Amino acid sequence: MMLGCSICVYCAANYLNIKTLLDLTCQTVADMIKGKTPEEIRKTFNIKNDFSPEEEEEVRRENQWAFE
Questions:
Q1: Which Pfam families does the annotation name (predicted)?
Q2: How far, in Å, CA of 39 to CA of 21, rounded?
Q3: Residue 46: left if φ>0, alpha if ψ -120 to 50, beta else—which one?
Q4: Residue 2: band (very low, low, confident or very high) from pLDDT cuts 50, 70, 90
Q5: Domain extent for 30
Q6: Partner of 33 at 20 to 30 A CA spacing, among 24, 26, 44, 55?
Q7: CB 29 within 8 A of CB 2
Q8: pLDDT band at 45; cut points 50, 70, 90
Q9: CA distances for 53 relative to 35, 59, 60, angstroms
Q10: Is 52 helix (H, G, I), strand (E, B) or coil?
């Protein structure tokens, strides 16, 4: 499923309160993220990295547990 379609289906499922469809679309997006680096995730979801290199390093240090 393409990202745009997944997000639209997610929004519709959320609005219509269809829990099983909401769970399925959340899992689809989670599978798209799984095993990717932050840079790959940014590219997949077209997310701009607006952190300076220093800010990014600080965030990585504060959240080191997530990278272990």
A1: Skp1 (PF01466)
A2: 28
A3: left
A4: low
A5: 3-67
A6: 55
A7: no
A8: confident
A9: 23, 10, 11
A10: coil
Phi, psi of 49 (to 5 degrees): -90, 105
Q: For residues 8 and 17, is the Cβ–Cβ distance under 8 A? A: no
In Å, what is the CA distance from 35 to each residue of 17, 28, 30, 32?
A: 29, 14, 10, 8
Domain with residue 10: its CATH number is 3.30.710.10
* DSSP H helical ranges for 1-68: 3-16, 19-33, 38-45, 53-62
pTM of full prediction above 0.70 = no
Number of domains in the chain: 1
